User: Fold this.
Amino acid sequence: MRAAISGNKFLHSTSYRVARIIPAAACAAACLLILLSSALAAQSYFKADEEGFRFGNSFLERVFERSGDSFRTEWLVNKISGHTWRVDSREFRLRFTYERLGYWPGQENPLTVSAGDCLFRGYRVEEPRDGCRTLVLLYHWEQDLEGDGHSADWDSPGLEIEMRYSLADSLPEMRKQVGLSCAGGKLYFVEELSLEELEIPGAIISHQGFGQPVYTEEMFFGLEYPAGNNRADQGRLSLFYYPGAAIDSTGYKSYSAVWGVAGRGRTRAAFLDYVDRIRVAPARPFLLYNTWYDLRTAERFEGQTGGLLNQENSLARIRSFKENLVDKGIALNSFVLDEGWDKYTPFWEVNRKIFPGGLAPLSHELKNIGSALGLWLGPIGGYGEGLRLRGSLGREKGLEVSRKGYLDLAGPRYNSILTSCLIGYLKQDEVNYLKFDGVLYGSADTDHGILPGIYSREAQTAALAALCDTLHAVKPGLFINVTTSQWLSPWWLMHADCVFMGGYDFGWLRELPSPSKRDLAISYRDRVCYEQFRVHDQQFPLNSIMTVGVIKGEYELLGDLDETLDKWTDDLVIHFSRGLAMWELYISPQILKENEWESLRASIRWAEANRSALLANTTLVGGDPLKRQPYGYFHQGKDKLILTVRNPYIEPKVFSMKLDYDSGLLAPDNEAYLPLTVYPYLAVENPWMSFGENLEINLSGYETKVLELLPREKVDFPFARNVRFDFATGGLVIYPGSGTEKVAVENGSTAPLLLSGVSIPPGIEGQVPLKPALPVTVLTVAEEREEDFRGGAGSGLKGSLSLSLPEETLSAEIGFLLEPEKGLDVKQPRLEVNGQAGGWRSEAGEKGSWYWFLYSLKGGGAHRVSYDFSLPQSAGVNGRLSAWLILRRKLEGRKLELPGMSAERAGEFLLPASSGISREVKCLFERPVKF
Assistant:
C-alpha cells in the first residue's frame, strides 16, 4: 500500500555532505530551478519544476516525472545519438526477510518491494564534490497490516532507503547506488537487491549476462561488481545481486550501477572506453618470466627431468635474462616464482631449504638489473600435495577450510593471515607482481564466518576484490593477475590488472590436422579466444587477458625442441598480436638457440613500439579456427592500424575483412591506409584502403601474416608493389617472381626519386625494368598410381611421386595427410624416399580422426617417394588422402639503386621478417579414397 506523503521527514546520513533538502510537498507546490554554478556545457545540472526534475550533463539526462505521490524515471536521454527513450521504471527492487508478527495476504516473507511500494519522503541534491553532483531520492518502507482482526500494535522501525544518482561533469555515464538503514537494529535481512528495474520499449538488447554489461544499440548498463547479474529478460532490464546483509542503524551501501550512452551502433567501443576509465591501472606492457615450466621442486615433481627450483638456479636464470634481454635493451619487469617457493607449513612462508637466504638475494639481484620479484600463490591452498598439507594445517589452526580441503578466502581468520603475509612480501622483498591461482566460489559450510549458498559466492567475490584493493593501496603499481576460477567480467579490472582467459594452461587442437605441435597449440589458444569473445561474446578488453604466454621449457616444450625457427617465431608473433598487456615467458633460457632469442627480442621490440595500437582497441576478426577458417586480431591506434591474420589449416585460404565498425574501427574518416605486410616479409599486396572497403589477404598453409595499415602521411618511403622487398643502404632490394622483367615502385616521399635511372614523382607509381630478368625456377612433380580402380577398397592408396626441387631449396618436407570420415587405427604405412625406408615422423588427431606422415628431404634435386597406405583388412571407410610439399627456399634479390636510402628504415618495422626466404606449401595431389 502506498502511504501519503508525510511532510518534512527525511533520512539523514552523517557520511553524506548534504547541500540542500527538498521535501516532496515543495515539489508539488512550486516550480523550482537550481541554477548551474557554471555556464560550461559539459557541467552536470539538476533542474526541477512542478512536473518533475531533470538530472544530466552534455552527454545524457535522466528525467523524473510525478507518479502519484512519488517520482520515477520516465525518460532516458542520449544526447550523443540525439535519441530520447521513454521507460517504465520501478527505480529499485528489494527482496528481504523481516521480523514479521501477525499476518495479512501479501505480507509473507520474503517480501519484494520497489519504489512504488514505499513512502516517498523527498529528495536532496549534493553539490559537486570530486567532480560529481549527486541527486538523492528518499524512501521509507514499514510493515503495514490491514483489516479488522489482522492489525495490532506491533510497531517496528521501518526501512529507510536512499537512491543516489551521481554524475560527473564531463563523462557520458551516470551511476546509481542504494543506501539502506534501520534504526531498530537488525530487523531486515536483504536477500536480493536490484539497482535498476527498467523496461525500454523499442530498444534492441544485444548483450547481457553474469558479470557482463547489458547493451542496447546506443546505451549500456551494468553493476560495477564482478558477480553482478545484468539481465534483460522479456524486455525488462534488471541489475541485481545477493547482498546477504542484515540492515541496522549503521547502514548498508550497495555496489553501484552504471548507465552509459554512445553513438548509434557504437555501444561496445563506448563501454570499453568506460572500462579504461574505471580500471585500477591503465593497461601497460608487463614482461615477466615464470618458473613453472623451467624450475620445479623435487618434492612434488619427483622423477621428472628438469631444473630444480632453488636459490642457485633462480640466480642463474636472472643472470641469463640479464645477458639475453636486459643487456640488449629489453626490460624484464618481473621474475616470478611459481608454485614451490614456499613451505607448506606454516602458511606461505619461504622454504629456507631451497632458498636459504629467503627472497632477499633474488630481490637484490633483480633490483640491480631494473627488475623485481613476483610470486605465485594459490588462495585455496594450491594444488596436489600442497593443497592437502595446507588444508590439514588450516584445520589444525581453526581456519576456514571446506569439506574438500580448500581454504576459504572469505573466512575472516584465513583472510587476515593471508593479507598480512602478502603485505610483508610487498614491503620486505619489494614484490611487484602477484598471481592468484584458485579461489573458492561457493560453499555449503556454515562455520566460515560467512553465510552459505549463494551468499558465500558473494562474500568470496568481495574478499578477493578487497584483498586486491588492499594490496594496491600498500604498493601502487603492483601488477595482480587472477587466474583459475575467474570469469571475464570487466569489473574485475577495478581490482586486478589481468584475468585468465579460461580453458587449460595450454593444449593442442587435435581436431585440426597439423604436422606441427606448435601450430596445434596456437590454434588451441585462439579457439579458446574465439569461444570466449565470439561464441560467448565476452565484453572484456583483450589487453587484460592471461593466455599463459610463450612456452618452451624443460617441463613443457609445447612444440618440439628442434622445431623450425619459423614455427617458434609464428607463435611469438601471434602471442604479441593478441593485444595482451602481460607478456609471459615460460621458457628455459638454456635451451633457446641464439636465433630463437633474436626472434623473441624482435617480437618484444615490435610490441613495445606499437603498444598504443596493440593495447588500445582489439577485435577478434575472421572465422573459427576449429572450422579451418582464417582469423585474426585487428587493432586501431592513433597513428596506424595493425592486423594479424592466420590460416590454421594446410589448404590456402583468403582472409576477407571489411574496414568498418564491426571490424573494430572506431570512426569513419576519409583517411587512406597503405596495407604494408611486415611479417613474414615486407610487401605491399593490396591497394590503398579506406573505411568501408574490403581487404583481402592470401594465406598459404599455416601461414601467419602481420599488416600495418599506415595513413598516407606516415608513408614517406618508396615501396615495391606485389613483390617482396627490403630496405638497404642506397636502395631497395626486391624479390620478384621468376621471369619478372619489370617491378612497380611507388614513391611515397614528398620529393622525386631516381630509382635505378627511372624518375618517379611524389605519390606516383613507376615501372622499373630488371636487366636481366630473373631466371625461371622450376619445381616438377610426377605421380604414378597403383591399383587405381574406382570404388573398391584401397583405391588410390598406393603410388609414387617424383620430385625435382629447385637448387635454392633450403629445406623441404613431404607430407601425406589422411583424413578418414570416421576414426581409424592406422599403423605406420609403407613409405620410402629414394629407395630408403625410415626417417618418417607422424602426428595424429584424436581417436584416429587424421594422420600426418612427414619426411625431411635433403636439399634440392631429384627425389622419388613411394607410398602405400593400404590397411591389412578393408575398413570400408571413406576419406581423403592428400600429399603436400612444405618448402623453404632462398629468393634471388635485385637491388634498385636509390642514393640516400638507409638500411635503418627496415628497422622501423622490427618484426623478424625474411623477405629473401620464401615459405611455400604446395599440394601435390588430393583425392577421395576408401580405406
